[in-house]
Inverse folding.
């Protein structure tokens, strides 16, 4: 462990996960665009037999972007940021190097089996938790390996204090471990009763209890997969790229504990007006409103970090991606609490406003931050400057336009839908039948799908830019301190 | 127990819990600022961990003098 001149950070595992992020990003988003067009043009459901139907593809889209694209992005940035803020190289520990590789390959094998089984229609029917029990066990193994990786690296660190990003990565690890275990408690039917195939299972919980556990999981998956690790990323990459220390480190600590505590109680907002106890619903509503505070605490901390440095928005597209990401974070964490108010939810629930909200967060916050992180890492990992700033600028505007088309169409569609469902004539009869709402919404579905297509095109531009950076860009002599070098 | 008592207990529980949490939150804030004022710790310097993160940079707070990276 004696430091010498040759000691460098080892990015081989981070690179592997970078490729996986790009691969699953393309697969997941492509399927997303397909199912979006299917909603607008139903004939598209019949292109590939049972394998091309909306119902088969939808879990592939969600699992693909969440557990493929985003999770790989989290792992890629972890294997990059972890070493740097702990000031220790993975190369110093052969054990951690092997562990990192095993982590990557087991994860890839698992993901491939997951994709195949979902295409075959094998799943538990629990949203965002579709994998059957043998795969759930494999997920646990992969997760434990990641944990060993995290705590192994922490064990050999030189920096005594853990940087705030580390807190968030650790919280991601612990949070998901807890959620996944409890929500996926399932009974393998074949072994218990002889019914079904050997890989089939049913949830251990029934009825309302199942719904509560499921949304405790679903809601906190948003917390610990869509929010916490992305905050880990932005707390490292925005200061590093802009050369500005975090505006207030104390605020980052306070927001951390605030977020950890408040998030866990807000899950009831997914089950308003359902059969769960009334107090659970009210608690979910109230904690959702309180949740604005820690969420905006982090987001404002990031914006204030750029205080006096707004010129960088013009000169550096990476800063632009990250600032827009935190702005979309603020938007979705304001929109969410509004939808969690009972009377608003009575209108919004089951409508397209919900996917509208989802994609403010996922496309604007999660997607932008993940791509910006990989862009920042590329010159350092491949020792080449970023291939094209121009391409990056156009990508930014194309994707931003895509997101705006996505949420504006879904806001209008959702509120229209909600209003039509509840409209009555003077005798109290429903004014519209279900199909009336469907016909009205078709143009908005086409708009949304096109917004998604723009985002996908932007993702291909990102992929091309990354590929060229890895293979053809100008080599750089020394690692850039802050702003990532890029060719015009 | 009748419904009314339950409701009453819930209300007491709710108010105490709220006060308890608010106290914890403000104590944490107080703790952060007090330990900075008394010179015990300087939280803001930790922000530099993201900026000075070369493997050869001196740690902001080294683990122990032994495995301190040399510069
Ligand atoms: C303060 C923060 C937030 C609150 C209070 C909140 C609240 C809500 C509410 C009330 C719903 C709709 C439930 C329904 O009627 O079906 C919802 C859905 C959802 N939100 Fe959020 N949200 C927040 C932030 C976010 C962020 C930042 C993301 C993503 C990055 C996100 C992702 C989702 C997803 C994926 C769903 C859909 C769940 C489903 O029905 O499948 N939320 N949220
Ligand atoms: Fe939620």
């Amino acid at each position: 462990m004696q430091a010498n001149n040759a000691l460098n950070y080892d990015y081989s595992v981070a690179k592997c996960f970078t490729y996986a992020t790009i691969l699953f990003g393309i697969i997941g988003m492509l399927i997303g665009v397909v199912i979006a067009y299917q909603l607008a043009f139903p004939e598209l459901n019949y292109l590939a037999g049972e394998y091309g139907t909306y119902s088969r593809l939808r879990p592939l889209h969600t699992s693909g972007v969440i557990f493929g694209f985003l999770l790989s992005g989290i792992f890629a940035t972890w294997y990059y940021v972890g070493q740097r803020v702990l000031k220790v190289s993975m190369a110093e520990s052969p054990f951690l190097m092997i562990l990192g590789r095993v982590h990557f390959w087991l994860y890839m094998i698992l993901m491939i089996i997951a994709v195949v089984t979902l295409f075959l229609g094998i799943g538990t029917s629990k949203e965002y938790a579709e994998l059957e029990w043998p795969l759930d066990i494999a997920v646990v193994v992969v997760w434990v390996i990641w944990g060993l990786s995290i705590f192994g690296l922490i064990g050999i660190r030189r920096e005594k204090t853990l940087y705030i990003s580390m807190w968030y990565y650790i919280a991601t690890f612990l949070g998901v471990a807890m959620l996944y275990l409890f929500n996926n408690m399932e009974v393998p039917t074949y072994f218990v009763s002889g019914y079904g195939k050997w890989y089939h299972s049913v949830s251990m919980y029934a009825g309302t209890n199942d719904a509560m556990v499921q949304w405790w999981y679903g809601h906190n998956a948003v917390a610990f997969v869509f929010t916490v690790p992305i905050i880990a990323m932005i707390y490292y990459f925005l200061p590093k790229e802009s050369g500005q220390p975090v505006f207030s480190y104390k605020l980052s600590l306070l927001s951390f504990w605030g977020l950890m505590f408040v998030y866990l109680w807000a899950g009831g907002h997914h089950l308003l007006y359902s059969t769960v106890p009334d107090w659970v619903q009210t608690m979910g509503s109230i904690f959702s409103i309180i949740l604005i505070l820690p969420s905006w605490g982090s987001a404002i901390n990031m914006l204030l970090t750029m205080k006096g440095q707004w010129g960088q928005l013009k000169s550096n597209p990476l800063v632009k991606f990250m600032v827009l990401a935190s702005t979309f974070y603020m938007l979705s964490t304001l929109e969410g609490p509004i939808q969690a108010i009972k009377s608003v939810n009575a209108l919004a629930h089951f409508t397209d406003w919900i996917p509208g909200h989802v994609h403010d967060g996922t496309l604007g916050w999660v997607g932008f931050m993940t791509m910006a992180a990989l862009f920042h890492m590329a010159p350092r990992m491949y020792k080449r400057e970023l291939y094209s700033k121009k391409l990056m600028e156009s990508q930014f505007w194309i994707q931003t336009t895509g997101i705006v088309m996505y949420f504006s169409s879904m806001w209008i569609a959702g509120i229209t839908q909600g209003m039509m469902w509840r409209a009555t004539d003077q005798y109290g009869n429903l004014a519209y039948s279900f199909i009336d709402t469907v016909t009205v919404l078709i143009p908005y579905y086409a708009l949304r799908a096109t917004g998604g297509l723009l985002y996908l095109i932007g993702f291909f531009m990102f992929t091309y830019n990354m590929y060229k950076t890895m293979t053809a860009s100008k080599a750089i002599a020394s690692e850039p301190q802050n702003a990532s070098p890029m060719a015009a | 127990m009748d419904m009314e008592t339950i409701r009453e207990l819930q209300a007491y529980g709710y108010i105490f819990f709220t006060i308890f949490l608010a106290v914890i939150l403000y104590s944490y804030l107080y703790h952060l600022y007090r330990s900075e004022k008394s010179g015990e710790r300087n939280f803001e310097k930790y922000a530099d961990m993201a900026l000075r993160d070369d493997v050869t940079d001196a740690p902001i707070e080294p683990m122990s003098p032994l495995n301190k990276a040399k510069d």
